[in-house]
Amino acid sequence: MRFDGGVGGEVGAKAARALRALSLCNQALVRATDEQTLLESVCRIIVEEGGYLFAWVGYAENDPGKTVRPVAQVGGAADYLEELQLTWADEERGRGPTGTAIRTGRPVIVRDLATDPRFHPWRAAAAQCGFRSSIALPLPADGDRLGALNVYAAEPDAFDQEEVALLTDLADSLAYGLRALRSRVELERTAHLNRVLVDSFPCVALLIRPVTREVVAANAAARAAGAFPGRTCFETWAKQKAPCPWCLAPELWATGEPRHLVVEANDVVWDAHWIPVSPDLYMHYVFDITERRRVEQALGKAEEQLRHAQKLEAVGRLAGGIAHDFNNLLTTITGYSDILLAREELAPALRRDIEEIRKAADRAAVLTRQLLAFSRRQALRPQVMNLNDAVRSMAGLYRSLLGESVSVVTRLQPDLRPVEVDPAQIEQVLMNLVINAKDAMPEGGNVTIETQNVELDSEYARAHVSVSPGAYVMLSVSDTGHGMTKEVQEQIFEPFFTTKPHGKGTGLGLSTVYGIVKQSGGNIWVYSEPGRGTTFKVYFPQVHEAAVTRPAEETVDRLEPAGGGETLLLVEDEAAVRQLVFRVLAGHGYTVLVADSGDEALRLLESRGEPIALLLTDVILPGMSGRELADRLRGRLPGLKVLYMSGYTQNAIVHDGRLDADVAFLEKPFTPEDLVRRVREVLGSG
After folding, report:
1. Of the four, 32, 298, 539, 623, which is 20 to 30 A from 135 by CA?
2. Is the pLDDT reported for residue 340 higher than 50?
3. How many other β-carbons are positioned within 10 Å of the β-carbon of residue 182?
4. Where in the chain is the domain with CATH 3.30.450.40?
5. What's the CA angle centered on 519, arms 518 and 524, to 5 degrees?
6. Closest by alpha carbon to 684, among 557, 568, 563?
């Protein structure tokens, strides 16, 4: 038996040595600053105080009981540990005493290493070191067994019941100490990071005792302002030539709750915050907002408008750029889908799959148009149309958007006057207003869509800024939802304003509606009261044309070449689109010269002599734009016909939202049929 003061020693001496071992281990636990030192100290105490040959600690890897990594040892048996580590990779040998102790959570005693079958793989190595018996004790950590403490003796059957109990206590203390040490190290690390973080704050940050007003701690900015531990808040604020907020409003800290106060003195404005850390300690943050307040007062409403304009422009550029790249992808998807669908030998199942791809591309194209509508960079294609047609064409979409809990009623004036608007953008207006109505009725309700010819007189115009008296067509969408307050109505069309919970809305829907309506020459107003629903009324000027523009009939016949193999110059920087357009036009009998930039197009024409019948170019190109390229080529080739294609026009061929009168334009994404038809139209034009 160990811890016995020598062979034949008395029980009192044995108990004393056991208590001494426990005491030394507890001291090591308290003094340790890192895991390695702690583990080695405990192993040394066990070897020296217990008279054992060897002690070591191993941690379980990802697969407890198979692979254990030695992390500390005392007794000079490194070669033995290396031998053990090599054999633990074996599936069957991983069931040895150490692995079993970790796996089961119970001590494993080997009474004689020379005969115990569990120790067979390491018997020779143990004999070389003089080991005859051993014990492996699990080290629990937060409910998981992370490793084991292993002790070896020179004689067989060296561990009796009392000794096992003592070593188990030591192992439990070691596990507890490891957990405490890790927590302490993590807390110290976190505290250090917090100090570094707080010191980096540009504002003044203090820890203050509310009763004595003593500064307990101060960050770098606070120390620069004269606040040092040991001083009072009076002294700190006196140096800043401003009254102490604590003295101005002592009730701020008397309640024990977080508080906030803006202090103005000597032309200085402080934004002060108090956060309770404990009953007798407050965190005090102070921001100097003097300059910010001055700028806000100087700029006022003008600055707010500028900020909104800059935000809208930035998002518009982003949306336009995304739309440009996305439309190139959609052009490729829709183009090759149509080419495949034109094959008569296509298997029915494959045809259905491709048709689904085609439908998805069409839906994506709608999303792209929404992006461009918000950015107000979409080329308007106004048509003389009847708004009743737009309302009826979206009947199926209403049902899918609103669900079964919302009913839709339409009241359409039969003799509605025509208006000149872009049909795609009107669909966007309707969809956003219907979605807004649905969101206002989470428990269901009614949506009413109405059209009507109206005459807005001068009295109405005086009450509604930007409205001119005259004949209009009204499109209204009403709901029976929760309504809006006057304050919400004043901001409802502002970009990014939303009444939805965080993460549930972007605040872009109604601002997009507002932009489309304004870009189309109309006006929009909202009427609402809390608890009484909301009505949006859109007014478009009536037009006198009697004929309403109808969409062209779709043809299913294969389009023939538009002439006798004219030579076309294709300039497109997107390789996939360039390849698709070349394939379609070449397949319809045209000779197609291809370039990926304006510079390459100019070099290509210089090296060839045949005339060019048509320039087909993307609007946005690397280097010079498509418009610049066309102007340069027309200087060399008077009368050259040009067809622009793009999903994002910038200002190269669009002004005030409308295409220039002399511009032929093909909007991406387009189908092969659209491409061939448009090329034929431009070539056949006067």
Report:
1. 32
2. yes
3. 13
4. 11-185
5. 20
6. 563
CA atoms of 219 and 214, how far apart (whole Å): 15
Instruction: Confirm whether pTM is higher than 0.85.
Output: no
Cis ω for the linkage preceding 669 (within 30 of 0): yes
Q: Dihedral sign, CA of 596, 599, 600, 601?
A: positive
Nearest to 215 by CA among 226, 231, 201, 203: 231
CATH T-level assignment (fold) for domain 11-185: Beta-Lactamase (3.30.450)
Which percentage of the chain shows pLDDT scores above 90?
Answer: 13
Question: Helix, strand, coil: what percent of the chain each, to 5?
Answer: 45, 20, 35
Token representation of residue 594:
């291809």
Neighbouring-strand partners of residue 618: 645
Residue 462 pLDDT exceeds 80:
no
Beta bridge partners of 135: 109, 151
Which token pair is 58? Answer: 């191993």
List, by residue range, all CATH 1.10.287 domains of the chain.
Answer: 300-375
pLDDT digits (tens, 9 = 90+) for 176-197: 888 888 788 777 776 665 566 5
Return the CATH number of 567-683, one of 3.40.50.2300, 3.30.200.20, 3.30.70.20, 3.40.50.10490: 3.40.50.2300
Residues 115, 150: Cα–Cα separation, whole Å: 19
Residues of the chain within CATH 3.30.450.20 domain(s) are 202-288
Residue 635 CB neighbour total at 10 angstroms: 9
Helix (H, G, I), strand (E, B) or coil at 462: helix
Does the domain at 387-541 match CATH 3.30.565.10? Answer given as yes
What are φ and ψ of residue 363, in 5° steps?
Answer: -65, -40
Give me the mean pLDDT over the 401-408 stretch: 83
**C-alpha neighbours within 13 Å on the C-beta side of residue 465:** 0
Q: Give the three-class secondary structure for 416.
A: coil
Q: Which tokens go with 137?
A: 């004790």
Query: Range(s) for CATH 3.30.565.10 in the chain?
Result: 387-541
CATH architecture of 202-288: 2-Layer Sandwich (3.30)
CATH of 300-375, one of 1.20.120, 1.10.287, 1.20.1070, 3.30.450: 1.10.287
Distance CA 6, CA 12 (A): 12
Q: Residue 5 contacts by C-beta under 8 Å, 6 or more apart in sequence?
A: 13, 14, 16, 17
Q: What is the pLDDT of residue 305?
A: 37
Give CA–CA dist 627/616, Å, rounded.
Answer: 11
Confidence at 376, pLDDT banded by 50, 70, 90:
low
Q: Which of 352, 358, 229, 203 is nearest to 285 (CA)?
A: 203
Q: Which among 310, 247, 363, 312 has a CA at the least distance from the CA of 493?
A: 312
Which tens digits make up the pLDDT trace of 135-179?
999 987 655 557 889 999 999 988 888 888 888 888 888 888 888
